[in-house]
Amino acid sequence: MRNVAIVSFAQLPSVRVSHATDEAELVQPVTSQAMNQVGINQDDIGFTCSGSTDYLPGRPFSFVAAVDGLKAWPPIRESHVEMDGAFALYEAWVRLLHGDIDTALVFSFGKCSLAPVPDVLNLQNDPYYVQPLGLDSISAAALQAQALIDSGKATERDFAEVAVRNRKNALANPNAQIKGNFSVDELLKEPYLSSPLRKSFCPPLSDSAAAIVLAAGDAAKKLTKRPAWIRGIDHRTEPHSLGQRDLTSSPSAKLAAEKAGVGDGKVDLAELHAPFAHQELILREALGLADDVSINPSGGALAANSLMTAGLIRFGEAASHVLAGKADRAVAHTTNGVCLQHNLIAVLEGE
Amino acid sequence: MSDFLSAPYVLEYTYTRSTGPVIARFLESLRYGVLEGVKTADGRVLCPPLEYDEAGTATTGEFVQLRPAGTVKSWTWVPKPRKGHPLDRPFAFALIQIDGTDNAMVHLVDAEKPKRMKTGMRVRVRWAEERNGTIRDIACFEPVLPYLPGPVHLQYDVRPGQHYTAFLKGLEEGKLIGGCDPQSGKVYVPPRAADPVTGDPTSEYVEVADTGVLTTFTIIRIPFEGQKLKPPYCFGAIVLDGADMPIYHLISGVPYDQIRMGMRVKAKWKPREQWETSLENILYFEPTGEPDAPFESYEEHL
Asked: pLDDT of A317-336, one tens digit each?
């Protein structure tokens, strides 16, 4: 199998509202930056793939318009997934395995500021049995959090500790949106949005975009000194119906982690896409991460959560540590769907 | 650029959805107030029914009727309902395992307050009044409580007797009547059959003033069943001038933090045309503005 690596990553700072930019205007700066960093342009890219959802801007086929942020003449090979950009990265990885091209550009964008996001995410639910009940994304996650408490695996204090650590980590991340030194007791005084979830146990809504350049074999080595090699990557999904799942564990993340080889060596850091604080606890257990693993040095999705982009940013953040020589082995994770239904996991390594 | 354009925009699709045989059967039954599950090939029952189980095996198409009740497997309390929520008051979303099934249904529980919610609690279906073959034919679930209402309703007569009648008749004319034992000279309001100290009859009636001393009081802040007034309100013991025993009445016309023992008070009467045979002819007692009575003067009445 061909070795494929992340060679470059760029992101826009996550903000609550990006007034000045439409989708194409979010895409252009990050894609050009990601390519410029390794001295290439769109003409050098063999395949371009993006991830986004049209329900954020509320315009069907808005992803087609995002191509306006790229140089698409002469015509380019292009594809799109209605998922987080990390799944576009997976498609690009598969495409590079064909062997006929050496580079791929992956990008995603998400403007949460335009839409009633918790209500939009109800459209992920079963249209016959659940959507008519208006199960918003916070309430759905809260059903999972309460199940976790009932199982005895975690307490509300554990949730608060996750939120405090992520937002403290975010202090060192210039692209994060919510950061600071909060106290656990302070967070436990917040009112419930949907019990047992308080505001700080939920992700912010962010506008952002991100781009990653993938390269295979020697091409990767030519583009950067120390590529972040994708040693293993796998994704798994669970049944759609919440009533058929054990919400307190993540068998899909566990299996994907096994297939990606997370446990085959020492993990220096993991960037986990856990939009809700309790989901980090479920993922840590599923991935079997040791206590000394640095979790979300970026602050994770609790510090910045641009939908469809936050997962690709996890891949970029994890890769950045490897690219900079600050980590030898990093884990990147992305989730999709309600209550961690679908999980994508990769192991990134230096030489 | 300092001026960014922005405009509201509504997205609507008037889609219809085809239901297929399994979902159609389930939803059609809801219309008639019947809850059904579907059997899987390995003998389990799913409600809501699905075409395939989680292993991808087609379900059998055999339906079973279920008791419209179940057990809460997880729940979340929504204190502020959002626009798309079916209820406009606080409620719970819950995963509910219908009796006799092997999966769980997402629905709402109308429980009034989060204290009533608990994983493992029993709930029953509350059917919608108008049903049209959607999941919302189940309006919501409601808690099954482990008790029955047990109201008691009995009709009695009240006969206040001679002394209390004298007191009530006095009130009809705006007078406060007490009973006096001529031996001890003590005056009790309302009058009673005997002086509790001597045991002798209180044979004489005397009128006492509608002014007096507030000897002690309490401020009620908690609501309770049958309460007529909205908390907070103050209830006090008043020894009327000329009496040796307090009556109890409302204290008002003064900020609550200024109410104190020894305060001089006066009855605030209803307008005369509203008087009945009742102590309610007095609305409440309010301060007279006179200097407070010294503690020693009412100590024995506490």
From this structure: 999 999 999 999 999 999 99
A-interface mutation test, from B44, B74, B103, B136, most A Cβ less than 10 A away: B74
CB under 8 Å to A245, separation ≥6 — which residues? Answer: A238, A239, A339, A341
Say yes or no: B134 contacts chain A, CB-CB below 8 A. Answer: yes
Cβ contacts of A142 on chain B, cutoff 8 Å = 76, 93
Residue A283 has pLDDT above 70, yes or no: yes
Q: Which two three-digit tokens encode residue B231?
A: 């908390």
Smallest Cβ distance to B106: which of A118, A192, A243?
Answer: A243
Q: Are the Cβ atoms of B79 and A191 closer than 8 angstroms?
A: yes
Is the backbone of residue B17 left (phi > 0), alpha (psi -120 to 50) or beta? beta
With CA atoms as reference, report the closest residue to A265 among A314, A186, A327, A206.
A327
CB contact under 8 A, B106 and A130: yes
CA distance from start to end of chain A: 17
Contacts of A144 in chain B (CB under 8 A): 74
Counting every residue, how long is chain B?
302
Which residues in chain A are contacts of B77 at CB distance < 8 A?
192, 194-195
- As for the ipTM of the complex, it is 0.86
CB contact, 8 Å: B288 with chain A?
Answer: no
B161: left (phi over 0), alpha (psi -120 to 50) or beta: left
The H or E element that residue B83 is part of is none
Residue B39 phi, psi dihedral angles, 5° rounding: -85, 140
The answer to whether A119 contacts chain B (CB < 8 Å) is yes
User: Above 70 in pLDDT, residue B160?
Assistant: yes
The pLDDT value given to residue B2: 60
CB A86 within 8 A of CB A314: yes
- Domains annotated for chain A, with CATH where assigned, are 4-116+205-223 (3.40.47.10)
SS3 B30: helix
Type and span of the H or E element at A95: helix A85-97
Query: The tokens of A85 are what?
Result: 């950009």
Q: Between A and B, how many CB-CB pairs are < 8 A?
A: 106
Query: Does pTM surpass 0.80?
Result: no
